[in-house]
Design goal:
Elements (H helix, E strand, L loop, with lengths): L15 H10 L18 H8 L4 H10 L8 H13 L1 H16 L3 H10 L7 H17 L9 H26 L6 H4 L5 H11 L1 H7 L9 H17 L10 H15 L4 H14 L9 H19 L7 H20 L4 H20 L38 H38 L1
Helix pairs in contact: 1-3, 4-12, 5-11, 5-15, 7-8, 7-17, 10-12, 14-15, 15-16, 16-18
GO molecular function: oxidoreductase activity
Keywords: Membrane, Transmembrane, Transmembrane helix
Protein name: ER-bound oxygenase mpaB/mpaB'/Rubber oxygenase catalytic domain-containing protein
Length: 434
């Protein structure tokens, strides 16, 4: 079968095939149907798998997602996945505080997110843990990204979820045209939105988030990481042309920053809700002030000011410097020692996913990415209230303290060495002359 031609992506194009299939899948009786027969809890992936042979459109989608593009190199995919776990903590911080919070500056995207209600202060943490589950699944193994693997299935489930959100909002527009201004915001979850989303998980990490923490990927690591997310984009029905090579990927990222980032009042509310919802909670256990300082570092003062992220005091600015020193030291030292690099990658793979499934600190069980946050004519996202500010346990800020201690120790050692050299070397020269 010939693969579909990659699209360039626009706000007026979207994943038509997925929409047609979701409409058909929602008509198939399922054990997940509630008493009111609403289709929102259906396992759409399971229905697609089980009924693909019964409908031409379902078969078309099933064939597409199970056909591997010719450009896929599985060794490269595995290396790209290793990049994620090699720089685990700094990449997770990019995803949380630059890709996510900074992404709330995208005017059109936040209009869709706010209508789902999934970014309310009380539910946003679980919503973000589900996103993290998706990231971990696509980063786990090359086998997992092959058809039928956990990463592959995760991509398809999210693709069908996006289609469900899009179809729901468009159906509400039919009822009430003023509910969502299509002429202003474009079709919900359109191709351009999806390209932007992949960008926040990929190119923004490489060329914005990591460098602002003092970490620079090699050319090989860059190509491998982009290749991984290009495959994710393909499975999710997102145009893959923008990730064809590193030059094009960077150009698209820069274009999106110029054209799409236009903060609105809605985006400011979502930013505040994210920080409120994550404050002193697993897995980071970070204070509001630390998250704000991290967000300002990763997004820059201009965007942070436009999103009304408060400026940090001297204490938290110094703390961020300590954090950066620590992650830089670990990121440059560990990969230099091959066996240590492999051990750390393996440990992080196991640790991160175990944390996601933890009953107390994580989701408790794997998410099927069901259509839980259903838009309605009366649903919107309001500013939440800040909860307890009491620290429950040590978290990411402890790394910052370790970094400050390490930096102080390094400076003290170098200073003592310099003083020693200044005092001893001249005297030795004098003795030689005598």
């Amino acid at each position: 079968m010939a693969l579909k031609s990659p699209k360039s992506g626009s706000s007026t194009d979207w994943d038509y095939l997925a929409d047609e299939c979701v409409e058909r899948l929602n008509k198939i009786p399922s054990a997940d149907d509630g008493a009111d027969k609403r289709p929102f809890k259906k396992d759409l992936y399971g229905l697609l798998r089980d009924h693909a042979e019964e409908d031409p459109k379902l078969n078309e989608l099933w064939t597409e997602i199970n056909t591997i593009p010719q450009w896929v190199d599985w060794d490269q995919i595995q290396r790209g996945q290793d990049v994620f776990f090699r720089y685990g903590v700094p990449i997770l911080n990019v995803l949380g505080f630059e890709s996510l919070l900074g992404g709330m500056g995208a005017m059109r995207v936040v209009e869709t997110l706010s209508r789902t209600g999934s970014f309310g202060a009380k539910v946003v943490r679980r919503r973000l843990l589900e996103t993290l589950q998706h990231v971990l699944q696509v980063s786990n193994s090359a086998e997992g990204m092959k058809p039928g693997g956990d990463g592959h299935i995760s991509c398809v489930r999210v693709r069908l979820l996006h289609s469900s959100v899009r179809k729901r909002i468009l159906s509400l527009v039919d009822q009430s045209p003023e509910y969502y201004e299509i002429n202003k915001y474009g079709t919900p979850v359109n191709d351009l939105d999806c390209i932007g989303t992949i960008n926040t998980f990929c190119t923004s990490v490489i060329w914005l988030g990591l460098p602002r923490q003092g970490i620079y990927l090699s050319q090989q690591e860059t190509e491998d990481y982009i290749a991984l997310w290009r495959l994710v984009a393909y499975y999710m029905g997102t145009p893959t042309d923008p990730l064809e090579n590193t030059a094009k990927a960077r150009a698209i990222m820069e274009s999106l920053l110029v054209s799409e980032i236009r903060p609105t009042e809605t985006g400011k509310i979502l930013v505040k809700n994210i920080i409120i919802g994550l404050e002193n909670t697993a897995p980071a256990f970070a204070s509001k002030e630390f998250m704000e300082a991290m967000s300002r570092l990763l997004n820059g003062d201009q965007l942070a000011d436009e999103l009304e992220i408060p400026r940090s005091n001297l204490y938290y600015r110094v703390l961020i410097w300590g954090y950066c020193f620590w992650v830089m030291a670990v990121s440059y030292f560990v990969p230099k020692i091959y066996f240590l690099d492999r051990i750390m990658i393996s440990l992080r793979r196991k640790r991160f996913y175990k944390l996601i499934l933890d009953d107390k600190m994580g989701l408790g069980e794997e998410s099927r990415f069901e259509f839980k946050y259903v838009p309605s004519l009366t649903r919107t996202t309001h500013l939440g209230k800040r909860g307890s500010t009491k620290f429950e346990r040590l978290g990411i800020e402890s790394l910052a303290h370790l970094g400050l201690l390490a930096a102080f120790t390094a400076v003290a050692t170098l200073s003592m060495g310099f003083v020693f050299a200044v005092r001893i070397v001249p005297s030795q020269i004098f003795m030689v002359r005598l």
